[in-house]
Specification:
With about 350 residues, this protein is an alpha/beta fold. The chain contains 12 helices and 12 strands. Strands 6-7-8-3-9-10 form a 6-stranded mixed sheet, sandwiched between helices. Strands 2-1-4-5 form a 4-stranded antiparallel sheet, with helices on one face. Helix 3 runs parallel beside helix 5. The longest helix has 18 residues, at about 175-190. The protein is globular and about 60 Å long. Bound molecules: adenosine-5'-triphosphate and magnesium ion.
Length: about 350
């Protein structure tokens, strides 16, 4: 099971430029969280700070009783082994083939035999659908394959925490859909704590348990998916609905006169769209941290937008859920019927990632 990360009052500046300040959030153990924010708001800086590559100016990052920014170098080195990271640029070594790239952390950080290294590398390449590509150089494979190779490398040390920076940038919508399903499947298998930075609204709406939004140098909101998808807060609503109307402009913030002009023209954000069902593992099982559809809304007296939690086949997952869970085999056992249940937004057809 992954570990919980508690961020308290975190502030990061470069010189006189404050990137974000007073960020507090908890990444719950084993859950998938997504971090959103306009370009340049410091999402990559946040991931690098979490993993200890950048030092915050203030605040704490608690993993158990260890406060990451203040650990002595030797303990920081040990704590870093809990993390698997996929950086925004993939950061593969161009002169090494895919096998050696993925094997690199194992050869660097463990004393495993070459046959053991091979077993682990092939297992992870299989997990991300890259078996057969191991002898290719990064320059010889597609952008999507590079991302998956980077993901396999982030997974070889069996991380408790997986940080992923824009895995979907530069991918076409179909590959992004496969990648989203891969994250959900991976989370079900390894139960690590995931934080995914993305610009893809569909990913943000369907993949995570929690969503956070960085805006104007602060964490505008962080919480359960249903909380953000039903939020009337203008910036959250604008971002999650990819709307031009709201406080975010091309150059990040609109000034007051632009907002007043929008108000005068009677422009206001439309109705909230329905909350889609959350993606589920493609083998039909339920992730241990997955919440019942509509559960957060019901517990907080929030009426979700009309049409919420209904899948493409017209099934209402608030109603289906108790029946579905009751019919599930325990985790670790084969899914009912041997081919997976009827899952909302299940794996797209095609079979492989
Ligand atoms: N090492 C550094 N030194 C100085 N400034 C930096 C450094 N790294 C990042 N920055 C600045 O921090 C700000 C946030 O950068 P960051 O890369 O985290 O943005 P981002 O939210 O990830 O954007 P994008 O969505 O485009 O990837 C930018 O203004 C950037 O120039
Ligand atoms: Mg970035």
């Amino acid at each position: 099971m992954g570990v919980e990360i508690r961020v308290e009052g975190l502030t990061k500046s470069f010189g006189s430029q404050t990137i974000w300040q007073d960020v507090s959030l908890t990444l719950p153990s084993g859950e998938i969280s997504v971090l959103l924010g306009p370009s340049g708001t410091g999402k990559s800086v946040f991931l690098k700070t979490l993993v200890g590559l950048l030092k915050p100016n203030r605040g704490h990052i608690w993993i158990g009783d260890r406060d990451l920014p203040y650990l002595p170098e030797s303990q920081l080195y040990d704590t870093r082994k809990l993390f698997g990271v996929l950086f925004q640029d993939g950061a593969l070594f161009g002169s090494m083939n895919i096998f050696d790239n993925v094997a690199f952390p194992l050869r660097e950080h463990t004393k495993k035999s070459e046959s053991e290294v091979k077993r682990i590398v092939m297992e992870k390449l299989d997990l991300v659908g890259l078996l057969g590509a191991e002898s290719k150089l990064p320059g010889e494979i597609s952008g999507g394959m590079k991302k998956r190779a980077g993901l396999a490398r982030a997974l070889v040390l069996d991380p408790e925490i997986l940080l992923v920076d824009e895995p979907d940038s530069g991918l076409d919508p179909v590959r992004t859909a496969y990648l989203n399903q891969l994250f959900v499947d991976l989370n079900a298998q390894i139960n690590a704590t995931f934080l995914i930075v993305t610009h893809d609204i569909n990913t943000a709406r369907t993949v995570p348990d929690n969503i956070g939004l960085l805006f104007r140098r602060e964490l505008a909101m962080f919480g359960p998916r249903e909380m953000l998808l039903s939020s009337e807060e203008p910036v959250v609503r604008q971002f999650l609905n990819a709307s031009k109307i709201g406080p975010i402009a091309m150059s990040e913030e609109k000034d007051v006169s632009e907002l007043e002009a929008e108000a005068r023209m009677g422009l206001e954000a439309g109705k909230l769209p329905p909350i889609p069902p959350q993606l589920m593992p493609s083998d039909g099982r339920v992730r241990p941290t997955q919440q019942a559809p509509g559960g957060w809304c019901a517990a907080h007296g929030v009426v979700p937008p009309p049409g919420s939690f209904i899948d493409d086949l017209g099934r209402n997952w608030v109603e289906e859920w108790p029946r579905y869970v009751a019919s599930m085999a325990p985790v670790g056992a084969p899914a009912p019927g041997g081919q997976g249940g009827q899952v909302p937004g299940g794996r797209p057809p095609g079979g492989t990632y």
